[in-house]
């Protein structure tokens, strides 16, 4: 197939914006369709990416039985330095150009990368068993030796050059890295190659960068592929999160997550400078650095379209956060917000050309219709590798060569699943 030149991206959150930025930069004529441009710099403030913690943490997220997700996450982590380098000129706005951020836009300007290094903590014996199980499986899956219970290493003697993605450390070493953390921790791991980004600054930089590269933005809801008929698109990219189900038969559902934004006050213990993830009596918790504060999450509920922040959710997040970082009680609680994460049927996103059988209309209004949806809680982290993959399909067509990790996320796997169930 000839290279597609005129591209529609349906969905203007982090996945759609990253694709638009990379494609426009590569010379494609890109138009982004999204009904929500209510946030600063025109980014969608109702999207999951606006609420997100922004962690880049594939080993910390690993869970037995999901090897494809782990490999895709590792590929995404490796792709982030190049993407951040491309976005550097748009972090603080586009000087003198359309979309330049002014003083009225405090959220989407500034350095995108907020921290390097991640601590993963277990608060009791059961939490420790869960973490050991997950990390041993992740290391084995990636061809590395699991660490024995006696293996503890001072992270100060270790860098990424040592090629150690996961390091077991003692509580003393944990406190050396983050003095404000509680000593009542049973187990601690350090991931030197992981980290976090400011999701809102990322969204702003992507929007400004895509516009500067020639991308167009249309505030419009697309309810069916036929809405784009006659507009001459060579390719349509579906990056609409849960809204992708209006356009395709790919199963995507909403999973609610609540997040707190907490900021230091004078005299407070300084916030951690590394990402801190923990299991607190079986509940997952993360503390993600931001300038002068933290993002705290995350609850997870199957509540459909419910975006309301609950008293119980805030209570549990604060109680668990105080267990790990006691000084947080003196911080200012500045924002409580809930987002809807677009989850796939198997916790792996849909990335790649969509078979005709999985389109709602049964036929396409463009030669190439590509999925980039269903990223769940990892939309920000996976945006780098997703954009690379979609660019490969735009340049090479449906038969483009992609990595094994990306190929595993192809939407056609849903058809194989359906056929398997029918045969039983």
UniProtKB/TrEMBL annotation:
GO-annotated molecular function: oxidoreductase activity
InterPro entries: FAD-dep_OxRdtase, FAD/NAD-bd_sf
Residue span(s) of domain FAD dependent oxidoreductase: 6-390
Region annotated Disordered, chain positions: 143-162
GO cellular component terms listed in the entry, alphabetical order: cytoplasm
SUPFAM superfamilies noted in UniProt: FAD-linked reductases, C-terminal domain (SSF54373), Nucleotide-binding domain (SSF51971)
PANTHER family recorded: GLYCINE OXIDASE, SARCOSINE DEHYDROGENASE-RELATED
Protein's name in the database: Bifunctional protein ThiO/ThiG
Species annotation: Dietzia timorensis
């Amino acid at each position: 197939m000839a290279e597609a030149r005129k591209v529609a991206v349906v969905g203007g959150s982090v996945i759609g914006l990253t694709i638009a930025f990379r494609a426009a930069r590569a010379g494609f004529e890109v138009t982004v369709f999204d009904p929500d441009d209510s946030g600063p710099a025109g980014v969608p403030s109702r999207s999951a990416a606006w609420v997100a913690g922004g962690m880049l943490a594939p080993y910390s997220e690993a869970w037995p039985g999901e090897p494809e997700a782990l490999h895709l996450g590792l590929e995404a982590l490796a792709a982030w330095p190049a993407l951040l380098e491309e976005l550097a000129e748009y972090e603080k706005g586009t000087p003198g150009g359309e979309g330049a951020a002014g003083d009225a836009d405090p959220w989407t300007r500034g350095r995108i990368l907020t921290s390097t290094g991640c601590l993963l903590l277990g608060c009791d014996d059961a939490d420790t068993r869960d973490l050991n199980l997950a990390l041993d499986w992740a290391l084995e899956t990636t061809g590395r030796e699991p660490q024995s219970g006696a293996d503890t290493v001072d992270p100060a003697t270790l860098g990424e050059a040592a090629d150690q993605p996961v390091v077991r450390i003692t509580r003393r070493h944990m406190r050396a890295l983050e003095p404000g953390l509680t000593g009542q921790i049973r187990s601690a791991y350090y991931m030197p190659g992981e980290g976090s980004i400011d999701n809102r600054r990322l969204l702003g930089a992507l929007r400004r960068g895509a516009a500067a590269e020639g991308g167009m933005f249309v505030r419009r809801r697309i309810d069916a592929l036929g809405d784009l008929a006659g507009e001459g698109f060579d390719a349509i990219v579906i990056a609409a999160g849960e809204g992708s189900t209006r356009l395709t038969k790919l199963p995507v559902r909403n999973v609610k997550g609540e997040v707190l934004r907490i900021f230091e006050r004078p005299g407070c213990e300084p916030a951690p400078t590394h990402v801190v993830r923990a299991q607190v009596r079986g509940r997952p918790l993360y503390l993600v650095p931001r300038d002068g504060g933290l993002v705290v999450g995350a609850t997870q509920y199957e509540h459909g379209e419910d975006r309301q922040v609950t008293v119980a959710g805030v209570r549990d997040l604060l109680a668990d956060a105080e267990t790990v970082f006691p000084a947080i009680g003196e911080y200012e609680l500045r924002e409580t917000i809930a987002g809807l994460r677009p989850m796939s049927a198997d916790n792996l996103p849909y990335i790649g050309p969509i078979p005709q059988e999985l389109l709602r209309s049964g036929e396409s209004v463009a030669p190439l219709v590509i999925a980039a949806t269903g990223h769940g809680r990892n939309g920000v982290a996976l945006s780098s590798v997703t954009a690379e993959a979609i660019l490969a399909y735009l340049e090479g067509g449906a038969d483009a060569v992609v990595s094994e990790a990306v190929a595993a996320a192809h939407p056609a796997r849903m058809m194989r699943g359906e056929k398997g169930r029918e045969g039983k």
